[in-house]
Every structure is written in structure tokens, then in C-alpha cells.
Amino acid sequence: MSMTNNNPYVSGPSEILDVIKHTEKEYTFRMAFAGEVKPGQFFEVSIPKFGEAPISVSGIEEGVSVDLTIRRVGRVTNMVFEHMKGQSILMRGPYGNGFDLDLYRDGEIIVVAGGTGVSPVRGVIEALSLTEDAKDKHVIVGFRSPDDILFRDDLKNWEERLDLCLTVDGAPEGYEGKVGLVTKYIPEIPLKDVEKARAIVVGPPAMMRFSVMGLLDKGFKEENIWVSQERKMCCGLGICGHCRVGEKYICLDGPVFNYTESKDMID
Amino acid sequence: MGYTLTRSEFDQVLSELGKNYRLYAPVLKIGQGRFTDTDVVIYDFISESSEIELEKKSDFSFKEILTPLSQTLFFFTENVIKEADIDCSDAIIFLRSCDMHAVKRLDQIYLNNGKHVDPFYKKVRDHVKFVLIGCPGSFQECFCVSMGTNKTDDGYLFALNYSGDQFDVDVKDAALNELFEKAGAAAKEVAVDYVTENETKVTIPETVPNSIYQSDLWKEYDKRCVACGRCNLVCPTCTCFTMQDAFYTDNGKVGERRRVGGSCMIDGYSTVAGGGQYRRKHGERMRFKVLHKIYDFRKRYGYDMCVGCGRCDDVCPEYISFSNIINKVNAEVKEGE
């Protein structure tokens, strides 16, 4: 993607290389992108005449593509879903700090992700699953119901390689998997040294709050916990003001924050 | 260099300046206020001094010249995207010290917050110069002295004191001396008037602990504040905008992307995809706004955002006083120490 000029509001066309359908409402669009990008960063996806929406990067093939997992919930995303493989969509970015993989590769870690919150950490989980001590990498993933489960292929792979706990908030009778909120499974995760273990939490605000509480109760140190925040963003450039919390701008200073920072951020 | 001028001499200067610049100044619009038989002072073009409203505070600030309430950024026609032309005419804005300080805050956000300069803002900003209107006294609700914005020493072409038909100017831009002398201005030592005391005073707390963010003091505004956002609109330092795309109903292939003034007090400001929102309660929004103006902004840039112009107090339909809130916050901070 090349910027046509120095105007940071101008987006460039990117070809849709593939569309992966997870559920009725959630697709992953694999977009051609050759630039540098990290998991946890986001793009502003632009549909002229309809608007722009910030979308997290849910996968990266370096120098080739980025995945954008999009839920069809509004004007812009509805229009994105009208596009097919081979067509182009305008986007600009990436924005935000993203996850620094080097912080998480070594030692024990718990990743707690809820719903579309899996998107920003998908790249991190993938990297963790390829480490030598992958069995010390614990991942708790929660979805609302069995029908809402995203990234099924990844979940299968991860289940083989690392310690995966897949749960749903509620399920019809006869469902064989785990049922219950992600917080129910945090205490059960076996850890050798909770003092050193790290954690990443991404999901809806309430889920993040209670998950962090669960981790702290388990003995996690605050500085070993990271969260990724979601807010309304109109520009991604630190100008429009919508994502500000206190003196921080989620689009510039986040969306990934160490808990020692984010605990004092009051909306 | 200082000069004293009669009204007609000053008008001659304005007419000369008007050849190269658009002149914007506060103008009294009779009967154009929000309610029947009310007036409003807003910024508009002027060509002579009698059009400038010097006796009243402007209800709305100059900021819409730099950050229009609605500004088209792009035009879309089928597959072509065209950047909107921005009016880059050279302009001179007449404003008071508090507003001059507000310019610095606008620049901070639009030119110097993230990695990017806002190109639409910059295009306009690069063509704008200022004339400082001296303040012989404080208006109601002003608290510029407390905010340290009552004085301005630079950043303007000339400063202007007024008294009836006499205009005294202190020219900062030496290139303008000739213009004043040609108009017949007599040399005079001039020191621009500035407010030394306001009736309204505030004390800004040095630090605001987290307990204040969660304090009950904000609950009062859950009911009192009607979340109309007028305070944001008149504030010379509020910069938030919301992106808005539209297509024209008589030809859906054509449309535009614009940004419109955003308000942290109005519903929808924080709404994310799927309908989730932060700060549903009006008291929470009040806290978000107030603490940004007197603390959060300072934590990021080292100086306060609020310039103490008091326009938010003037315009509030519920008679909520911003300066009172600041003092309440300060009292509660002191109490907790």
C-alpha cells in the first residue's frame, strides 16, 4: 500500500487476498500489505461515503498480508462484507503500539481473550504456540456461544501445541465443550512460579476487569499483566480526541498497556 | 512601536490590511441569538472598526475559523477520491488574550500530539495572523488571571486598546509601522490593557488523585447537566471532531467525508461498534471534560488547557458554573490531603 501524498487521512487500496468465514457475522479479510506491522496494531478501514472503522490486525504474513477480522455490526462493516476476494478496500495504518512479542516469548504466560478480543492477540498466541516450552503457554479463550466461536482452525492447532482452554458463556444442552466465563478457568491454570508469570487480557471491558482481578487474586504481579483497550477512534492519529482516557490516547499510547498504567485509566 | 489613531485613521489601516487579508473580528448580530429577541456575538468578516464588537465578550470563539464546525476533507465521485480544497486566504483574526492562549492549545493537538501534523488545519493555520484586543476590564465569568492567560506578549501583529473613537496600538510586526504612519497615526508609548483581577477566581489543584475521578461530587451533574454540549461548542480549546461520511441522495455515486465538531458531553461520543459506550452518566462526562481542562491535558503537555474565558458558564442552559466546579474539585483535593 502506498500513500499517495503526505496527508495522513488518505487511505490506499489494498487487495482482498482471501475471505475466511468464521460465523454468519464474522469474517477475516486477508488484505495485501507489505509494510511493517505488529499484532495488536490496527488499521482504519475506509469505505468512501460510508465511513471509516478501526480494525485490529488479527494475523500477519510478513511482507505479504495482514488479516482483519471484522464483525458485521454497522454502516462501514456492512459495506466491507459486500466485498469479495480479488476486490480492493481502502485502508490506512497501521496505528498504535501493538504487542512486543519479545516480552512474552519466554517463561510462563496466560493469555485470556474474549470474543473478537482474540483478534489482536491471535498473532501473539501463534508465536507462543511455536516456542519450545509451549506447554507453559496457557490460553483461555471465551465466546458467547458455540455458534460464536472464531478461528476454529487456529484453535485446533493451538490445542495440539499449547495449553488451550476454550469455553463458551452458555451453550444448548448436549454441548460437550467447556461452559462458563473465562474467569472461571483462571484459578485452574497450573503455574510453576506465579511471581514471574505474565498475562495478557483482551476483550470486552467487564471481562477484562474481572479477568485481571482473577489474575491478581491468583498472585500475579501487576507489572506482569498487559491489556489491550478498544475505544471509538475517528482518526487513529491522536487528533480527533475520542479515544482519550486521562492524559493517554489509546490510538497513540496504546491500545496495549501494561496494567500498572491502565489501572489508573478511568474512562 | 506605539501609535494613537482616530477612528477614521484606524479604519484606513483596516482598509489597507483588508486588501491583503480577510479580517475576522467579533461582530454583534442583533436578534440572531438562540432565543427570541436575543443577540449573539460571533466571529465574522469586517471591513471597518465600527463593525467590531469591542464592548462584549464574544459568545463563540474564533476557533471555527481554524477548525470549522463542519469541514469537508474528501469528495468521492465513483472511484475518484479528491482531497477537498481548503480556503487558504491570508487572514487576520482580532482576539483577546485568553483566546490567543487558546491558539497554542489548538496547535498542540492539531500539529503536535501524535506523529502526524493535521494537513487540513495546517493549511489554514499557516495563513492566519492575529491582532490582540486589549481588555480594559474583566467580563462576567472570566477567570483568566487564575489561569495565567490574562497577558500575552507575542504571537500577534499589533495589540489594540480602544476608548470611544480613540485607538492605541502597540505594533509588534515592524513591517506594519509604515502602514500606521501613512494613515496619520501619531507616535505614542502604548502598553496593551490586560485584566489584573477577575471577580471569578479559581484555584487549580496541583495534582488530582484517582479518588477525585470516582468522587460523588460528579453525581450532581447526572441530573443538572442535560448533555447539550454547548460548553464544548463555545470553548476555544475544545478540538474534538467526529468523522462523518455522506452520499448525496439524488446521486448515490457521489459523496463526501467531513469532520464535524465533536462533544464529549453529547451521546455517541464514545460509542464503539456494536453499541458499547463509556461514560453514560452526564456526571461522568462532566468529570471527563473538567479534568481534561484542568489536569489531564497538563499531565501530557505541561500546561493547562482551560484558558478561563468563561464562555461555558455564559452559555450553559442549566447555569452550571465551570469555575465553581474547579473550586469544588480543588476543595475536595485539599480535603483528601
Report on this structure.
The complex is a heterodimer of chains A (267) and B (337). Helix content of chain A is 20%, strand content 32%. In chain A, the strands form 3 sheets. Chain A has a 7-stranded mixed beta sheet, with helices on both faces. A 6-stranded antiparallel beta barrel of chain A has the order 1-2-5-4-3-6. Chain A folds into 2 domains: 84 residues, Beta Barrel (Elongation Factor Tu (Ef-tu), domain 3); 162 residues, Rossmann fold, CATH 3.40.50. The model of chain A has no long low-confidence stretch (mean pLDDT 94). Chain A has 7 helices and 15 strands. Chain A starts with 11 loop residues before the first strand and ends in a 5-residue tail after the last helix. Chain A has 267 residues and is of the alpha/beta class. Chain B has 337 residues and is an alpha+beta fold. Chain B has one domain. Chain B is 31% helix and 23% strand. In chain B, the strands form 2 sheets. Chain B has an 8-stranded mixed beta sheet. In chain B, strands 5-4-12-11 form a 4-stranded antiparallel beta sheet, with no helix packed on it. In chain B, a hairpin with a 2-residue loop joins β11 and β12. The longest helix of chain B is centred in the C-terminal third of the chain and has 20 residues. Chain B is globular, with a radius of gyration of 22 Å. The N and C termini of chain B lie far apart (50 Å). In chain B, 42% of the residues are buried. Chains A and B meet through β4 of A and β4, β11, β12 and α10 of B.
SSE arrangement:
The complex is a heterodimer of chains A (267) and B (337).
Chain A: E1 12-21, E2 26-32, E3 42-47, E4 51-61, E5 65-71, H1 75-80, E6 88-95, E7 109-114, H2 118-129, E8 137-143, H3 152-161, E9 163-168, E10 178-179, H4 182-185, E11 198-202, H5 205-218, E12 225-228, E13 244-245, E14 248-249, H6 250-253, E15 256-258, H7 259-262
Parallel strand pairs in A: 7-8, 7-11, 8-9, 9-10, 11-12
Antiparallel strand pairs in A: 1-2, 1-6, 2-5, 3-4, 3-6, 4-5, 12-15, 13-14
Chain B: E1 2-6, H1 7-20, E2 22-29, E3 40-45, H2 63-66, E4 70-77, E5 80-83, E6 91-96, H3 97-112, H4 119-125, E7 128-133, H5 144-147, E8 158-163, E9 166-171, H6 177-182, E10 186-187, H7 210-213, H8 220-224, H9 230-234, E11 241-248, E12 251-261, H10 282-301, H11 311-315, H12 322-336
Parallel strand pairs in B: 2-6, 6-7, 7-8
Antiparallel strand pairs in B: 1-9, 1-10, 2-3, 4-5, 4-12, 8-9, 11-12
